[in-house]
User: Fold this.
Amino acid sequence: MSTQLPEKKEPKVTTQTVVDMKGRGEKISMLTAYDFTMAKLVDLAGIDIILVGDSASNVMAGHETTLPITLEHMIYHTSCVVRGVDRALVVADLPFMSYQVTTKDALVSAGRMMKEAGAHAVKMEGGKPIADTIKRIVDAGIPVMGHLGLMPQSIYKYGTYKVRATDDQEADELLSDAKLLEEAGCFGIVLEKIPSKLAKKVTASIDIPTIGIGAGSACDGQVLVLHDMLGLNKDFHPRFLRRYHDLHTEIVGAVGNYVKDVKTADFPNKNEQYK
Ligand code: KIV
Assistant:
C-alpha cells in the first residue's frame, strides 16, 4: 500500500475569499474566459476570479456591442467555463434585458445561471435603479458582483466609450451607488473606466473589493479581457490595456506555416501517417 499522501489541492476561491483578500491588502486577479480550454489554462495559471463576461458578444460572436448576447448564450459559455475550472471563482454576467425589466425576471435569470450553468456568482451593471433587485437575488442565496462606471450595456445611453464620472455630479452618484451596492449585499464591484482618484475614494469607502478595468492601481483587484491581454486583437489599444503576448502574430504565423506545408506536400511526413 502506498504511504504517499494525496497531493494537497489549493483551496477554491469563494466570495468570502476575495472579501478577505481586500481585508489583508492582497490584490485580486480577474480575467475573462468564455470556453472550456481557455478557462482551464487561466485557472491553471492561478487566476482568482474568471469572469464569463458579456464581452463574449464582441469577442466570441463578433457583435459591435454587448447588447445582442442572450441569457441562453451566456448560460452556454458559462457552463463551458465551469467545466474547465478547478480553483477560481466563476462569475457570469447577466446579459442586457435579462434583469432590468422586473425583479422576478432578474431572479429567474440569476437562478438559471446558477442552476443550469453552474456559475458561482452573477454580475450586473447598475447602481440605485437595480439595488433592490440585487438585494432580492442575494437574499435568495446568489452572490452578486456589481459593475459601475462605464457600463457597456448602456452604450446607447452614453453614446461613447469614453471615461465616466469625470464631473462631480456623476462622481458623487457613483460613490453613493457603490455604497448602495454594498448595502444590497454585493460581494464586490467592477469599476470600469473612471478616474483613478475616484476609484481610490470608492475603494476606501467600502469594505467589499473593487476590481478595476481602466480605473487605476488603487482598486483591490484588476480585470482585463483575456483576448485583449493576450494580444489576439490588434485593433483595440486603450490606455489601460497591457498586452502580455502577441498571439495574433503567433497564430497567423503558425496557420500560415501549416497552409504552406499542406500546399507543398511537406505535411504529413512519413512519421505522421499510419503504415
Ligand atoms: O464583459 C466583460 O468582459 C466585462 C469586463 C470588461 C469587466 O464586464
Summary: The pocket of 3-methyl-2-oxobutanoic acid is lined by residues 32, 51, 53-55, 93, 190, 192, 213, 223, 225 (CB under 6 Å). The chain has eleven helices and eight strands.
